[in-house]
Specification:
With 467 residues, this protein is mainly α. It is 73% helix and 3% strand.
């Protein structure tokens, strides 16, 4: 059902020239398609919103009539699920598709109307969350309310630039001049009550450009689109009525809907519970109560073996307690679920080097660096491993990379100095040692650096702590 729904969005977005299209599934929550609207017109944006639920409702109607003819209960349950969830998605609330339809046809005509609609939708979702005791609705509602002021500011800036005739005919920020983008960023920063992170500022600049291109549909198109929206919602209700007739209006009239929705509600509750358990495990880990953290995270993976981070977290906790074999087993499970999990690779390398498998550890570190080449800790760990393996040239390369990312790490400079000396570049080695002395500001750091300079046994390095 999710595939049909999101494929409808995807196909129409592709038809109307949306850029950077991505379809992704969120375990226990749902799915979504993201893309850059560019210069898509108002009626096209509305059709994108309708393209998800309408095919699902039509398919649900077909299943409903098959159920009437054949009477198979599974068909009835599937029909009810398609009709109920796609009909629910047409409710006039953001971020549902029904809310998008009203936003693109009506509320986008005024930034005040748009902000009011967003705030109203957020409040309604918060109320639903309280009444239904469902945290997911509350999260969406809170996000809408928190984003409302920024949405109002970006709408104002877009309107000012458009009304002043300063908005160029561009489809995306990549088509704009640097001067114009700086102008937008400056306006956003002046309007913001607090300093913005560069990533947040980039998102807001993109939002302004998108709103500059937004045009509401004509009056005739608006009537036609809202008529289609209303007809789809009515058809969903008719389909539910057909299923009720098929069940003979007995006591189990709504049973197929309950059967379908119970699975969705159960999944949402499981996701919320697992999120709470995972957070509790993080808290225990931060307090170095590794046994409790492992117990909590094991509960998470027992319920959701494909959790995006829990296996890696278990492996990290085992690394901290020196249970290397258990760490390798847990992290390997994480990599089956998420092969591109960079922290899992570096944690696997850390465990492998402690069970006497340096070459496998080196491979794991290299895999991590392929995914995240700016991780100084990984370059440092790989460089030290290569140093222990007498691979001086490769060690020097990795340690130089680590030093370029973290220039004030005395341990990196000491290791780099050793590698340079082994390669015969004594001048570079001395320079690295001098830099290490300068960077070793504390007595502890200096003594550690001096011990490593003299080639004594290294203190056990700590693994990364990112969860």
């Amino acid at each position: 059902m999710l595939l049909l729904h999101e494929s409808g969005h995807y196909v129409v977005m592709r038809k109307f020239g949306y850029r950077d299209l991505q379809m992704f599934f969120i375990p226990f929550v749902g799915a979504a398609v993201s893309g850059w609207a560019g210069k898509a017109r108002g009626y096209e944006r509305t059709l994108v919103a309708l393209a998800g639920p309408v095919p699902g409702i039509l398919f649900g109607l077909v299943l409903a009539f098959i159920f009437i003819l054949r009477g198979h209960p599974l068909v009835g349950q599937a029909a009810a699920l398609f009709l109920w969830l796609n009909g629910f998605n047409l409710l006039p609330l953001l971020p549902l598709d029904g809310g998008r339809v009203l936003q693109e046809t009506f509320f986008c005509r005024s930034r005040w109307m748009e902000a009011g609609f967003q705030i109203t939708a957020g409040l309604v979702l918060v109320v639903i969350a309280i009444l239904a005791r469902d945290q997911l609705f509350g999260v969406f509602g809170a996000a809408l309310l928190a984003a409302a002021p920024a949405s109002l500011r970006t709408s104002r800036i877009a309107a000012q630039l458009r009304d002043a005739g300063e908005a160029p005919d561009i489809a995306s920020p990549s088509d704009a001049t640097l001067t114009f983008l700086v102008r937008i960023a400056t306006e956003i920063e002046h309007a913001s009550p607090r300093p913005l992170k560069p990533s947040t500022l980039a998102v807001l600049v993109r939002t302004v450009v998108e709103k500059m291109n937004r045009r509401a549909p004509s009056a005739g198109a608006t009537v036609l689109l809202l008529g289609t929206y209303g007809a789809a919602f009515v058809l969903a209700l008719v389909g539910v009525g057909v299923i009720a007739v098929g069940y003979g209006v007995r006591g189990d009239t709504v049973q197929p809907m309950r059967a379908g929705l119970s699975a969705t509600g159960s999944a949402t509750r499981r996701a919320s519970r697992n999120s709470d358990l995972y957070s509790a495990g993080q808290q225990a880990y931060s307090q170095k109560d590794y046994a409790t953290a492992i117990r909590l995270w094991n509960t998470v993976v027992a319920d959701d073996p494909r959790h995006p981070h829990a296996w890696n977290a278990i492996g990290m906790a085992y690394n901290q307690t020196g249970q290397w074999a258990e760490a390798i087993t847990a992290i390997s499970e994480q990599l089956k679920v998420t092969p591109s999990h960079d922290q899992a690779w570096v944690n696997l390398g850390w465990a492998l080097q402690h069970v006497g498998k340096p070459q496998e550890a080196i491979s794991a570190y290299r895999k991590h660096i392929e995914i995240n080449p700016l991780d100084s800790w990984a370059h440092k760990g790989l460089g030290l491993l290569l140093l222990d393996a007498h691979q001086w040239k490769d060690a020097s390369t990795e340690l130089r990379q680590a030093a370029s990312i973290t220039p004030n790490d005395a341990d990196i400079d000491v290791a780099l100095g050793r590698a340079c000396v082994k390669l015969g570049d004594v001048a570079a080695g001395v320079e690295a040692f001098e830099r290490a002395k300068k960077n070793a500001t504390s007595p502890r750091s200096e003594s550690l650096s001096i011990r490593r300079m003299h080639g004594r046994r290294k203190r056990r390095r700590e693994p990364p702590h990112s969860l």
